[in-house]
Amino acid sequence: MAESTPRIGDPKQFPVVGIDDHLPALAEQLLTPAAVRERFATARPWTPEFAGDGQRLFPNRPTTRASVLVPLVARDDGLRVLLTRRSDQLHDHAGQVSFPGGRVDPGDADAVATALRETEEEVGLTRDHVQVLGPLSTYSTVTSYEVTPIVALVQPPFQLALDSFEVAEAFEVPLRFLMTPAHHQRRAMQYQGLSRQFLSMPYHGIDAQGRPREYFIWGATAAMLRNLYRFLGP
Asked: Is the pTM value of this prediction over 0.85?
């Protein structure tokens, strides 16, 4: 019988053990489209803070390569990160906030091709609106995925078309909010005999129906955003 991905349940139930408000927010001048383009064009070295979730739950499971798009949408009030909330009917990671993306297909030329294809399939964002800037460091999950985040600038106007089986909602979060560590919570958990911490970035926004909603960004998505913070920093 194949191993199934265990369900964590509600990650908000785990206690906050720290808030990273000792770290500075990135300055507005580092978060413009021009500045982000320039950062990817330079070879300045950097060190990712998070390489992965921690110890794998299934050490004998083969590694699955995947890729996600980190879409930075150029709005009049600044860059915004396009995120998705996964459908509640999915078997794995139901209801979680994530970047658009998925596993590599044999026909994909590289990680960029995977990210662009999966994004178009999941949310209908066509690649003519997307300027790929480059990858961040690969991120390893406890469920044996090796995920390559591909950062891109997205130019409006565009029309999304969600795959309702996979995606319940697409929404945007200001990049400056996510690049402010005072909004980064560290939570502690005990799970399947393992102790670990994970990042969360709760964001209070407005859903597609105009209603206030909390979007709970956590786990691998939050960790990759924290790596973006390290990459874009001075």
From this structure: yes
